[in-house]
Amino acid sequence: MNICDPAPTDGDWPRRIALCDLDRGSPGTYILIMHLASSQNVAVGSLGEAAYDGGWYLYVGSALRGLKARLARHARSEKRIHWHIDYLLEAASLVEVWCHIGNERLECEWAHVLGRVDSLEPSAVAFGASDCRCRTHLFRADERPDPHAFVAGLRLAGLDDRLWIVARDT
């Protein structure tokens, strides 16, 4: 059984989808919403050890060869450490995922949208951004982020606002 909400008929976004309902090879861009219960030092591969304040973290990534598999990997606790985000996920709890299904690599555009949100602060220079010119793909907030506010930011930036909130299968 999955916990998908019925898709609204009025075209409003975001909408919910269960991880199991994503097509196996579908590409896409995603934001991991994580909670770090308390401040702690985390060693992040080549970036070294840094202090991360307790709070909410948003990490922007893309998976152009399989969004479903990438999100399932991020949700697993047992995995080989490969990306910067893997180190932070050892300390933080993955709470929610927002994604866009499509061939476009939108992670840099999404990072720029998040960078313009007053309640978010860029965190850890170069985190997740070693293959682009972005300052970071990791952002921190005191309060739980609102996907509706992000959709509004996408619209203001003239970007596709079709955002899915991925629910874990139950």
Describe the secondary structure blueprint for this structure:
Blueprint: E1 15-18, E2 28-36, E3 40-44, E4 48-52, E5 55-63, H1 67-75, H2 84-89, E6 93-101, H3 107-115, E7 121-122, E8 138-141, H4 147-156, E9 164-167
Parallel strand pairs: 1-9
Antiparallel strand pairs: 2-5, 2-6, 3-4, 5-8, 6-9, 7-8
Describe this structure in words.
Strand 3 (40-44) and strand 4 (48-52) form a beta hairpin. Residues 1-10 have low confidence and may be disordered. Strands 1-9-6-2-5-8-7 form a seven-stranded mixed beta sheet. It has one domain (15-167). The protein has helices spanning 67-75, 84-89, 107-115, 147-156, and strands at 15-18, 28-36, 40-44, 48-52, 55-63, 93-101, 121-122, 138-141, 164-167. It is globular and about 45 Å long. By secondary structure, the chain is α+β, with helices and mostly antiparallel strands. The protein is built from four helices and nine strands; from the N terminus they run E-E-E-E-E-H-H-E-H-E-E-H-E. 20% of the residues lie in helices and 30% in strands.
* Main sheet attributes: strand count, strand direction, barrel closure: 7 strands, mixed
Poorly predicted tracts of residues: 1-10
Helix content: 10-25%
Q: Which word captures the global form? A: globular
Looking at the chains present, what oligomeric state does this protein adopt?
single chain
The string of secondary-structure elements, in order, is EEEEEHHEHEEHE
Mean pLDDT: 87
Secondary-structure-derived class = alpha+beta
